[in-house]
Amino acid sequence: MRVSTGAVEAAEVNIRPINSEVVSQEEVSGSLEQKNLVDYSAERKKSLQARYSYGIIFLVTNLIAWFIRDYGQRLLPQLHYLKACGTGGHDCFRTLGVLRVSLGCFIFFFLMFLSTISTRKLFEARNTWHSRWWAFKFFLFIVSVAVPFFLSSDFIQLYGEFARIGAGVFLLLQLVSVIQFINWWNNYWMPDKERKQRCSLGLFTSTLFYIASVCGIVVMYPFYAPRTSCTLNIFFITWTAILLIVMMVVSLHSKVNRGLLSSGIMASYIVFLCWSAIRSEPATEKCYTKEQVNGNGDWTTILSFLMAICAIVMATFSTGIDSQSFQFRKDEVQQEDDIPYKYGFFHLVFSLGAMYFAMLFISWNLNSSARKWSIDVGWASTWVKIVNEWFAATLYLWTLISPVVIQSKVMDHDEPMQQTDESAIP
Fold first, then answer.
1. pLDDT for position 1
2. What is the pTM of this model?
3. Alpha-carbon distance 82 to 57, whole Å?
4. Do residues 70 and 110 make contact, with C-beta atoms less than 8 angstroms apart?
5. Distances, alpha carbon 287 to alpha carbons 163, 210, 279, 281, 408, in Å
6. Alpha-carbon torsion (365, 366, 367, 372), positive or negative
7. Over the Cα atoms of the chain, what is R_g?
8. Residue 126: which residues within 8 A CB-CB, separation 6 or more?
9. Are the CB atoms for 382 and 315 separated by under 8 Å?
10. Is 152 strand, coil or helix?
């Protein structure tokens, strides 16, 4: 059967519009997808930049708390007229002044936590609230910090007791974040046949950490335990050395086999906590021969103080953005329009960080005032850091042992089941 040339040409004419229509639809859908990707990228960038704005707010709050504690009574006479500040404004400066500023910071970030806790997508209204509206949020921050100065001293004291618990929770979250980071780093540098250079560099890094840890232990004895009468410092340092050895032995055990890198990093961390705890002892103690500074502080004291404030902000910031370490489900797939980090968790950590910096500024003591340009000094601070060190070592050892314990329990449970199945077979 022969088909005429005219019929073929007519068919081609009819097909061309259909093909062109399909192509145009594909181009439109492709352009829309590209536009969506650009929009997602822009929103994600604004969301990531917002973190630093909140970090600056937190830093400013720390500086306000320090100013109120050390110089507020002399430079802010207006507070003397507030009824809640008591006679001469005494209840709005020093320890209570720090707690009032801390409460204001807590109120601001807790309100942000409540308003962003369920945010999931980039184009939700709550994402806009988190990443924009800075003029209104600045006004909200000012109001939040001002309100506690109109509250009674008894309520502020009650908040101080509550802040101790919140600061402890913050230390726990920070500890979990640090251990998760150490485990990730250890897995990244684990031996790999295809990347032998990475393995050798990981071994070199672990050696450096262990050398630094041992040197830290050795140096602390003559500096902080120069006499046999310094029994408490000797105990702190010796027990830290024992924990270091235990972590190394457990990490190298054949059933654990986690290598030296993670235990080396953790060893350096607990040695640092031990050193920081001993440094927090009162300067008048006979086993800690730090020179007393004058009321205004010398340049080393001021520099150390500013570095401590920056460390507080960095610790809060790094813990706040590490929401993945606290997810129960690790297999969640990140979509293009998902928010880059959990806003609710971020603001919750900052609200707990407000309690934490208050405890550092008042040295965990609600009944006495800290010295000018000092931070986290006193026996309460010392014991908080020592307990934190011991808990860090315990939690790390549990992360090493728990997989082995769980596996052995599963095997013990499976063996009777297997024996029952075998006995059921004729």
1. 45
2. 0.77
3. 25
4. no
5. 31, 26, 11, 9, 47
6. positive
7. 30
8. 115, 116, 118, 119, 343
9. no
10. coil
* pLDDT top residue among 27 and 174: 174
Of 57, 63, 67, the residue nearest 94 (C-alpha): 67
The encoded tokens of residue 34 equal 């590209």
Task: Give the Cα separation of 264 and 183 in Å (integer).
Answer: 11
H helices present in 71-195, as ranges: 72-75, 94-116, 125-131, 134-146, 153-188
Residue identified by tokens 């030296």 is 260
Whole-number Cα distances in Å, 291 to 125, 226, 235, 278: 55, 16, 24, 15
Cβ pair 326, 340 in contact under 8 A: no
Cβ atoms of residues 51 and 318 within 8 Å = no
For the segment 355-366, the average pLDDT, to the nearest whole number, is 89
Please tell me the distance from the alpha carbon of residue 403 to that of residue 184, in angstroms, as a whole number.
16
Q: Tokens 């708390």 label which residue?
A: 65
Percent of the chain with pLDDT over 70: 75
SS (H, E, C) 81-109: HCHHHCHHHHHHCHHHHHHHHHHHHHHHH
Tokens describing residue 129: 């609230």
Say how far apart CA 167 and CA 161 lie, in whole Å: 10
292 vs 272: CA distance, rounded Å: 23
Q: What residue type is 258 in one-letter code?
A: R
Q: How many CB atoms lie within 10 A of CB 143?
A: 12
Nearest to 269 by CA among 363, 162, 379, 396: 396
Please state, in angstroms and rounded to a whole number, the distance separating the CA atoms of residues 51 and 187: 28
